[in-house]
Amino acid sequence: MDEFAGRVAVITGGASGIGFATAKALAREGMKVVLADIEQAALDRAVPEVAALGGECIGVRTDVSKLEDVQALADATWAKFGACHVLFNNAGVAVAGPIASMSHNDWKWLMDVNLWGPIHGVEVFVPRMIAQDQGGHILSTASFAGLVANDGLGVYCVTKYGVVAMMECLFRELRPHGIGASVLCPMRVETNINHSGRNRPEELGAGLPLLPAGSGDEEGRSQAGRVIDVEQVAPMIVKAIREQQLYIITHEEARPFIAARFRRIDRSFDE
Prior knowledge:
Mean pLDDT: 91
Number of strands: 7
CATH superfamily: NAD(P)-binding Rossmann-like Domain
Structural class: alpha/beta
Number of helices: 8
Order of helices and strands: EHEHEHEHEHEHHEH
Distance between the termini: 44 Å
CATH class: Alpha Beta
Largest sheet: 7 strands, parallel
Radius of gyration: 18 Å
């Protein structure tokens, strides 16, 4: 997709962090933007800032874990702008700790937001995007933890591996329709994910620990990577849309870990 001006982008988790930075970057490209977020106050702050960059922008309060909310988001998008050309499934949450210590509610919360959220986005938006026959692009935020197992983030890894698999499949399936697909796989980015427990539903428990910086061993510590700013990530996302790039890897230091994983898989054929 190389034409942005006048086209429409929908971004979940769009009122802060990577979503907000991407919204601003796409608005600068001339796109109309729909921001979806679970926090109304954050939407109220974000929408005028994006609109001030020259494009139209609306906010729609959305809990991506609820199919009906995502359906309402799509309805609002088509009612206002008549189309969607870029869908960015970006909303996500995290909880830390070994798998053996995770509760059923920990699993459910992360699965509902991190995996069902993107599934809902695909389920609702993709058929409409195919039917409108105008091409476009779909992105989802996964993680480095969707490519390599990370100590202390087992549940998070499970959800993000699923997102990677879905986007790899969509990359192939949507090509005949002129729709690209990308999966964002960052290490640490300066976002609010460490505080995502603020939006954890009461029925699924309250509060959660900060994300670990890595386990006590050398590999665990180095797996954490440096922290980069969201403004460094947004141009990578725009480039991926423009160039039909499947994987968006934000940290060079992720490379040896990813390579090591695939070497282990390859060695298994000879063992």
